[in-house]
Amino acid sequence: MAIGAGEAEPVEVRARLWCDPLYGLALAAALPAVALIAATPAARLALHWPGLQALWLMAGLMPVLEEVVFRFGLHDCLAARWSARVGPLTLANAITAVVFGMCHLWTHPPAWALATVLPALVFGWAYERHRRLAAPVLLHAGYNAVYLCLLTVA
């Protein structure tokens, strides 16, 4: 996997995501991310069961497919070309997150699509930190599960 030049080595707990306290914090950040979407006029918070099919699709299949496309595809391609970074944020991660958000315009209201950029930055950070696809896939699945179970259209 191509990561920007000058990047620190992956954390030692690479094989054990759940032992990384920052990874746990990133997973817990799903709640404020959903609250951000709930602040838009098109959504409201409401605890509900979305159904097994929706949960399997949105928290199972889609995170895998999207992370393969956006991390193995776009993110790695950009990281191989540009190593620029601002603090913990790489240019590859930033561009990938913006494209991720733009792709959500097809299925979400604009404010919701814009709100997906922040979680996408977190997914990219996890990918770069742990250097394995499981890190962003599990985060993405967790965020989608929270989204499905806590948000409804207003």
In short:
The chain is mainly alpha-helical and 154 residues long. The chain is 63% helix and 6% strand.
How would you portray this structure in words?
It is a single chain. The strands form 2 sheets. Strands 1-4 form a two-stranded antiparallel sheet. The protein has a two-stranded antiparallel ribbon with strand order 2-3. The longest helix is centred in the middle third of the chain and has 30 residues, at 52-81. Helices cover 63% and strands 6% of the residues. Helix 6 runs antiparallel to helix 7. By secondary structure, the chain is mainly alpha-helical. It is globular, with a radius of gyration of 15 Å. The protein has 7 helices and 4 strands; from the N terminus they run ααβαββααααβ. It has helices at 21-28, 30-38, 52-81, 91-103, 110-115, 117-130, 134-150, and strands at residues 43-45, 85-86, 89-90, 151-153.
Q: How much β-strand is present in the residues?
A: 5-15%
Q: Are there runs of 5+ residues with pLDDT below 50, and where?
A: 1-6
Shape: globular
Largest sheet: 2 strands, antiparallel
Tally the beta strands: 4
Question: What letter string, H or E per element, gives the SSE order?
Answer: HHEHEEHHHHE
Q: Fraction of residues in helices?
A: 55-70%
On the 0 to 100 scale, the average pLDDT is 88
Q: In order across it, which strands form the biggest sheet?
A: 1-4
Q: Structural class of the secondary elements?
A: mainly alpha
Query: How many individual helices?
Result: 7
- Give the CA-CA distance, first to last residue: 41 Å
* Rg (C-alpha, Å): 15 Å
